[in-house]
Write a structure and sequence with these properties.
By secondary structure, the chain is of the alpha/beta class. The protein has a domain of about 210 residues: Rossmann fold. Helices cover about 40% and strands about 15% of the residues. The strands form four sheets. A seven-stranded parallel sheet has the order 3-2-1-4-5-6-11, sandwiched between helices. It is globular. The chain binds uridine-5'-diphosphate (UDP). The site of uridine-5'-diphosphate (UDP) has 14 residues, from helix 7 and strand 8.
């Protein structure tokens, strides 16, 4: 049985990944400071999988606290989710973002070297591509200068991995996520935004639930078929499974380079209005929305070429947009009940 340290494992994508790891036969240690998540998630993971992951509340940006985990536990691989992730906030607090996100990654890599741990999977983002010149975008497309410190930390960790893996002691895979939405089919875990959501899906579900008055669609004058921005939305459970296959690939030595990176999306672009229509259709709830100004920093349209992930990882997303929006709503309703 291999043991995976999942940093940020009580968070949205982290918790779904812990479920998939445990159901695939991995043992999991979660390290999280609970700054943007709740310890209740551990109970929910246990309810879903029948297995309780080890949980350590820790600030991984602190090198002593980080090192203590590696001294106490035997770890075979790491999946690194722990990071500050609010794009807007990162522009207000750039130093905090650089310090936290880079320091956590460095602390993990330093301890991996110290303990001879070889395998690392990094949570990255399609934000590394900036505004694509054409779609779908593949991994050969050059990355562009980031529009936010948050996006820049994702690029910088990828750049660090490129060099840190060159000696061959550490092998790494970065997964460039497109737009994860939805929740687990049990509605026991899902996205728990702190305060007013920045992202579209939780804003929609909170508006439908009456927590927010109205959704503002940021811009309907873009050069797209219906004038709203286009993204590649992916079900969080499909995304979680990509982490398991990436880890399997490293353990089985199927990686072709010491550092690889893959797009993780569905390969299909949907507009903001497509999401609203799917939500209204699957839930039967009419959404109160208005068109507003464009949001600064938004790319017009981006969707993934997923052929590399399909061919190399043997992974493909298989959940539909309707499954995504309906599961997000079930999760919202479940949260209201509890
Ligand atoms: N969006 C919107 N209203 C909101 C939040 C988001 O119209 O309240 C739009 C946003 O402009 C973008 C899409 O929804 O076109 C996805 O935004 P999100 O913040 O979820 O993800 P991003 O792609 O920006 O990381």
């Amino acid at each position: 049985m291999k043991t995976i340290l999942v940093t940020g494992g009580t968070g949205y994508i982290g918790s779904h990944t812990v479920v998939e790891l445990q159901t695939s036969g991995y043992d999991v240690i979660i390290a999280d400071n609970l700054s943007n998540s709740s310890a209740d998630v551990i109970d929910k993971i246990e309810q879903i999988t029948g297995k309780r992951p080890i949980f350590i509340k820790v600030d991984l940006s602190d090198s002593e606290q980080a090192a203590s985990i590696f001294d106490k536990y035997s770890i075979d691989g790491i999946i690194n989710f722990a990071a500050f992730k609010a794009v807007g906030e990162s522009c207000q607090k750039p130093i905090e973002y650089y310090r936290n996100n880079l320091q956590i990654a460095l602390n993990m890599l330093e301890n991996m070297k110290r303990k001879g741990i070889k395998y690392f999977v990094q949570s990255s983002s399609c934000t590394v591509y900036g505004e694509p010149d054409s779609n779908p975008i593949n991994e050969q497309c050059p990355t562009k200068f980031a529009v936010s410190p948050y996006g820049n930390t994702k690029q910088m960790v990828e750049d660090m991995l490129h060099f840190i893996t060159q000696s061959g002691e550490i092998k790494a895979i970065a997964l460039r996520y497109f737009n994860p939405i939805g929740a687990h089919s049990t509605a026991l875990i899902g996205e728990l935004p702190n305060g007013v959501p920045n992202n579209l899906m939780p804003y929609i579900t909170q508006t439908a639930a009456g927590i927010r008055k109205q959704l503002t669609v940021f811009g309907n004058d873009y050069p797209t078929p219906d004038g709203t921005c286009i993204r590649d939305y992916i079900h969080v459970v499909d995304l979680a499974k990509a982490h398991v296959v990436a880890m399997d690939r490293l353990f089985e030595g199927r990686n072709k380079k010491n550092f690889e990176y893959f797009n993780i999306g569905t390969g299909v672009g949907f507009s903001v209005l497509d999401i609203i229509k799917s939500f209204e259709k699957t839930t039967g709830v009419k959404l109160n929305y208005v068109f507003g100004q464009r949001r600064e920093g938004d790319v017009v349209q981006i969707w993934a070429d997923t052929s590399l992930a399909e061919n190399e990882l043997g992974w493909k997303a298989n959940m539909s947009l309707d499954q995504m929006t309906l599961s997000a709503w079930r999760w919202q309703q479940q949260m209201q009940k509890s």
